[in-house]
Write a structure and sequence with these properties.
Elements (H helix, E strand, L loop, with lengths): L3 H5 E8 L4 E4 L3 H25 L8 E4 L4 E6 L3 E7 L4
Antiparallel strand pairs: 1-2, 1-5, 3-4, 4-5
Protein name: Dynein light chain roadblock
GO molecular function: dynein intermediate chain binding
Family: Belongs to the GAMAD family.
Length: 88
């Protein structure tokens, strides 16, 4: 029996707090592109949340487009990126 959610996952990336990829299931070019751009997005979102409430912090982001869904779990030293096909 195959798990449906695993069929949707296109790639997984672990990057350090500076957006440098550490591990990935994607090709190098895609990994570097996603990690760099997602890092910028996380930094902007984190800054926005802290501007609203300095006691708060970003814990999870989910971005959905027509082609895919990107889930981001930032932490102090690392962040996890999961790219998957959106569910219908």
């Amino acid at each position: 029996m195959t798990n449906h959610c695993c069929l949707r996952v296109q790639g997984i990336i672990v990057a350090n707090s500076e957006g440098i990829p550490i591990k990935s299931t994607l090709d190098n070019s895609s990994t570097v592109q996603y990690a760099g751009l997602i890092h910028q997005l996380v930094m902007k979102a984190r800054s926005t949340i802290r501007d609203i409430d300095p006691q708060n912090d970003l814990t999870f982001m989910r971005v959905r487009s027509k082609k895919n869904e990107i889930m981001i779990a930032p932490d102090k030293d690392f962040f996890l990126i999961v790219i998957q096909n959106p569910s219908d």
